[in-house]
Write a structure and sequence with these properties.
Arc Repressor Mutant, subunit A; 136 residues; 2 strands; 2 domains; mainly alpha
Amino acid sequence: MLPEQAAAQVPELLRAGALGFIGDGCDDQEFYDALGVVARGAVYVASGSRAALIGGGAPAEPAQQVLTRREQEVLRWIADGYTHSQAARRMGLSGATVDTYVKRIRAKLEVRNKAELTRKAIELGVVRREPLLAAA
């Protein structure tokens, strides 16, 4: 939990391995949402801290200009903590197809691992605050 004024530290803390950030003024629901996301192995960053990830440089390109609609969908599932095979089942695709999408996404976004992929998904606004599926 970070004070709202400490949001600028988020990129440094992510590089150090932190998995979640919420402001000290968050409500109970946001706290439990964040806990659930981190428990699945994904990264949770409160909306007030997301601007710190993008920084003051050039604005990030919208995901729609970088990734296809299907690549965005795969990225959402992966960034929400699902495995490639879980994402494939939910999308009605083969695991090999999702693997191919992930390779393309990594190449386009110039990321090497799942943590970088998740961070980039947050920067691009692809990750939703709510999980893709309610209790399924």
